[in-house]
Design goal:
345 residues; alpha/beta; Nucleotidyltransferase, domain 5; 2 domains; 20% strand
Length: 345
Amino acid sequence: MTLMGWDLGGANLKLARVEAGRVVDVAQIPCPVMQDRGKFDAALEAAMPLVPAGAVHAVTMTGELSDVFADRTEGVAYLVAMMRHALPDQALRFYGGRAGFLATEDAAAHVSDIASANWHATAALAASRVRDGLLLDIGSTTTDLVPFREGRVTARGYSDGERLTDHELIYAGVVRTPVMAIAREAPFQGRMQGVAAERFATMADVYRLTGDLAHDADPYPTPDHCGKSVEESAARLARMLGRDANEAPLAEWIAIAQHFAECQLAHSELAAATLIAREALDASAPIIGAGCGRFLAERLAARLGRPYLDVAELMAVVPEAREMAARCAPAVAVALLAEGLERNC
């Protein structure tokens, strides 16, 4: 039996192929940069050559939050209909988190369960493998912090709004997030100064300068539509300080990038520590890192004196798909969860 896991995001589509409990292929396809819901159809069309006939499909999503939809209800309905039209003769299940897997015809009655439930899928998989812990899925746009105890997800929030309230979601990632969202001041030549409230640079520029970001983790256009070299990233970061890159050596722009990286890590550390205290997690409970920014999760675990596990260690995955499985954890998780359900039926 072949299981296909799908994570339909507003910035990209992720899909994973699972055969006999083993992850054999994972892919990420950026949605076209366009203010039109057709961007989802275009990404799906690009993914279809990777889809085998006769598979069972498990779908989760976050794309319903895209501003091409009037609200989440419209977004969920559109994405459900899109998948149903693309896969009319194949078994299709939608992940509803607390509601479990749902048939296509039941999706309309469970919008609040289906909407942005991808974090729950990864956490549910982690909780089935590790009894207690804290999942940190740090992606291009957001950071999910999900505690679990005694083999079950213990998040208090469910919707994005609730999770933002309960410190279980930080709307910042390591690629698409504007630098101005991370800190309002930065050091320059011995003094702190203000930061421009403009999208001159993103955190992808920061992590290219620090050397943390994998070269293929940022498939999106840069703010100035120029290149992605270290020097071009430094020029964009300089604009955040109202300056030109030639006003300081490259080493100083790298140090400024490290300042913004530290600000982001400190924010995540505070949220993680809050959740660890709230859940009374034992010191042996690990931090589990997922997403293209999981290098921050590993650093956070070291700061908190906790064991660290890469989410790929919780999956049976072929070596060549390991990195993408960790980056696209929700797509892998829904496939593995659905396979377990199918096997037990």
